[in-house]
């Protein structure tokens, strides 16, 4: 093969991997949105089959030889990074023995099926032996990568390349030290009125408003769409097919709105990757943390700001004149930022959410480190919630059994990205607003283009051209730091709750 | 391998082929129902990739050896038929050279893309060279199967196994001889009133009524669903996932209703295949003609009957009280059976529809036989329409360019199934009603279970266990015959139009 032919063959292989990934995403999207009730097991089999086909192509020996040959090519920096990312993924995928991958996948399926029954039955005892096996498999998986300092470093690196457990430990310790007293102070202050949010808001109108604002944010509906699901998500089905889903409650219009704006944030990132990177190893978001930074930035920092409501309250009052006839713009702004200690992570407000995540991260650290046994996890959960949030779950349903993550995948690296995203959201926003004075005034006019433009240039367009740490440094001038996030939270909640 | 292991491996391979087919069906379903506008070319690439993966598995040499080994197994009659069908499909798929398959597929894509532009522009000249190449490729494809008497026999056999061009010629000649004077007589009689069908009928209500009646027919929505598309279709995405689509017009409620009932008929067939046959070579409808017989039976013979409207008119009047306040049940029955000579096949009524199909079939015969050149096809189209329907299209848009079939696939065997379906629908129904006296009285009560039961037992459950000809003989006691269909049409339209 000539150099040119090698590169053409690599691009074609990457295109195929991207297309197989898109087909897999369609199988999942349809399962969550439209699949007939009786078709579940058939769909699971189709997904496993397609995943097997994709895994076969991703670990194909001929592909490996192509990657080796390409090492001798004279590449520009972007192409060199494409190759480096592809080699890293190939190496990761081929180092795990096939028997281990099969055993893990089969166990994950069995564990998930058991959890679906055990959770409503509050049957923690049933899950203990399954979770013990999950922990064993997680540790075994990490053992194939001895170059990392420990299992947690391996798992964090899988979703947030280049990040270490020590870095996360440090950031989370700083956050917890600041957040626990801040939540205490807020809890002691008078709560805003939220009664009007419990009125009835017809769901089709809720969905329409979310889509209108998503379009204002910059979500391109010719390359996407929104559907209803039980759990909202964003998924890329193709280079020009980035879909979101939302959920809605009749008696809480903020659920659909902020679910939509959260997923729009993820989608803006995926839709904003430079077109020349699409369907290559660089054609997507760079890490779990940076991805979540965009969902949280558009959901919280923008969507729960006073300036946002200055621009959008009229839209809501026009759509829901009776429901909002005794409500002011300021009351709406305060209501969507109400802080309440609660037991469920996915229902948590902006401020307490991180304490849920930090709790899980710390428990994962102890499980993987051997200082906590699975059989003691439920008690450790209660103790951690009492320490971090001052609450104790009345049952395991709202305690250790609440999240699907440990019961469907593995232990390690599955939660920290949520809070890293919060931290990075404020860091990116601080840089964006420093470079673009007056963003609030634009938001108040319902304009978001200048912010979208800055983020597109500095975060979205590069895709995976830089590592997450490089991207953060290039965009903000420094490595990841919690300072902007803590300043944002302190300023916002001091204002809202009249703290000194 | 032991005998048992060989059979287990074959079943697993068939399961995989079925699952890949289901994934391909999902890609197509989503393309027609939900795909964002900008994602079309990416989806086409995904479909081609998946088709290639499936073709690879369907023609895999290891699979061929398994089929050979299975020839020595001691099989029961159903398993022997599974193997025979699988061997036939394997042989068909492997006999076409890969280069020919690629060239055909690429040409089909180019031809379709050109047709999408040429049709609205009335640009027949642009399509002539493309259709000439289509004809060459069709003839070349047939040449790989010299065991057939001619190209048309090969193409008919692909969709209606065991049927010959001579058989179709004879049936169609009999039909045309009867239909042309029958249409003449109807055209000379006074037309029923149809003014009320042009009132405005809100589409969500139309769709609800169609789904209610589909459920009465026996369509199982836990194993299916209905969505809106430009062109209605039925598709099997999995053993328990058989979906339909419909279209709707505000000012014609019969379009959505009969599109739904047509696709429900196809779906009842697919949903009715015996569960032990699912995901095997026998797990689906046996031929294009038998499939269409079920869509037409439920759409026309049942759905346009006086008894049907005796049971359903109240449902419509309740749903559309203002639109139907001056309409009687009898007027509704007559309006949905109005006969009008028209230029467009897909808009044609039950009676004239076959003349559209026969026209195309005869033109295909002449093209494949060499007695008609593609460059003369447009003139031949006009001449045939004048002879068969007494009409001349004012442009090629409503003439030779109207159907996608020749411009996206090939020439030969693509139309006759529609009219074979009509013929068989009456033949099956005559046997069903002879075995079940009093079906009309049940229809008038909104009950369709006894008919559904008979069809399930005699047509649906066997799947592809018998050849189409065997199935027809077993179910009706004789080979395919046009007599019941002509008797049905003559009786119905003599009544409706007061013919002597």
UniProtKB/TrEMBL annotation, chains A, B:
The lineage, from the top, is: Bacteria, Thermotogati, Deinococcota, Deinococci, Deinococcales
UniProt-recorded name of the protein = Metal-dependent carboxypeptidase
EC top class named in words: hydrolase
InterPro entries assigned to the protein according to its UniProt record, in alphabetical order: Peptidase_M32_Taq
State the reactions this protein catalyses. Answer: Release of a C-terminal amino acid with broad specificity, except for -Pro
What species was this sequence derived from? Answer: Deinococcus aquaticus
| EC numbers on record | 3.4.17.19
Q: Which family does it belong to?
A: Belongs to the peptidase M32 family.
Q: Which keywords does this Swiss-Prot/TrEMBL entry list?
A: Carboxypeptidase, Hydrolase, Metal-binding, Metalloprotease, Protease
Q: What does this protein do?
A: Broad specificity carboxypetidase that releases amino acids sequentially from the C-terminus, including neutral, aromatic, polar and basic residues.
Q: Which GO terms describe its molecular function?
A: carboxypeptidase activity
């Amino acid at each position: 093969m000539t150099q040119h032919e090698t590169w053409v063959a690599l691009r074609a292989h990457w295109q195929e991997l991207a297309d197989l990934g898109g087909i897999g995403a369609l199988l999942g999207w349809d399962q969550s949105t439209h699949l007939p009730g009786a078709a579940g097991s058939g769909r699971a089999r189709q997904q496993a089959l397609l995943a097997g086909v994709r895994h076969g192509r991703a670990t194909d020996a001929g592909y490996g030889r192509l990657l080796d040959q390409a090492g001798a090519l004279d590449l520009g920096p972007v192409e060199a990074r494409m190759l480096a990312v592809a080699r890293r993924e190939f190496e990761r995928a081929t180092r795990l023995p096939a028997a281990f991958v099969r055993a893990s996948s089969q166990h994950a399926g069995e564990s998930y099926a058991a959890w679906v029954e055990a959770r409503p039955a509050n049957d923690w005892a049933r899950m203990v032996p399954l979770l013990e096996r999950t922990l064993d498999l997680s540790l075994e998986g990490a053992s194939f990568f001895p170059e990392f300092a420990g299992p947690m470093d391996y798992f964090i690196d899988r979703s947030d390349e280049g990040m270490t457990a020590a870095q996360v430990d440090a950031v989370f310790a700083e956050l917890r030290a600041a957040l626990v007293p801040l939540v205490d102070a807020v809890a002691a202050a008078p709560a805003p009125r939220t009664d009007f949010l419990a009125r009835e808001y017809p769901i089709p109108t809720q969905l329409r408003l979310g889509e209108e604002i998503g379009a204002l944010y910059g979500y391109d509906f010719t390359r996407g769409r929104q559907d209803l699901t039980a759990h909202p998500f964003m998924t890329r089905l193709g280079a020009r097919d980035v879909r979101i889903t939302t959920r809605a409650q009749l008696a809480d219009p903020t659920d659909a709105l902020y679910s939509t704006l959260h997923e729009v944030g993820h989608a803006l990132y995926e839709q904003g990757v430079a077109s020349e990177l699409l369907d290559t190893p660089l054609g997507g978001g760079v890490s779990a943390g940076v991805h979540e930074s965009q969902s949280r930035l558009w959901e919280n920092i923008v969507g729960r700001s006073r300036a946002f409501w200055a621009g959008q309250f009229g839209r809501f009052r026009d759509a829901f004149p009776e429901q909002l006839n005794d409500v002011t713009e300021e009351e709406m702004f305060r209501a969507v930022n109400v802080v309440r200690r609660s037991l469920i992570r996915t229902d948590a407000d902006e401020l307490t959410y991180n304490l849920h995540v930090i709790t899980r991260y710390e428990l994962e650290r102890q499980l993987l480190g051997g200082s906590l046994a699975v059989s003691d996890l439920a008690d450790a959960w209660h103790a951690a919630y009492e320490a971090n949030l001052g609450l104790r779950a009345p049952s395991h349903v709202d305690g250790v059994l609440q999240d699907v993550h440990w019961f469907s995948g593995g232990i390690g690296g599955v939660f920290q990205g949520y809070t890293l995203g919060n931290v990075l959201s404020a860091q990116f926003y601080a840089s964006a607003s420093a470079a673009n004075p007056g963003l609030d005034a634009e938001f108040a006019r319902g304009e978001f283009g200048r912010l979208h433009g800055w983020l597109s240039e500095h975060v979205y367009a590069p895709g995976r051209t830089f590592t997450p740490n490089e991207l953060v440094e290039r965009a903000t001038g420094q490595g990841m730091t919690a300072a902007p996030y803590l300043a944002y939270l302190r300023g916002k909640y001091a204002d809202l709750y009249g703290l000194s």
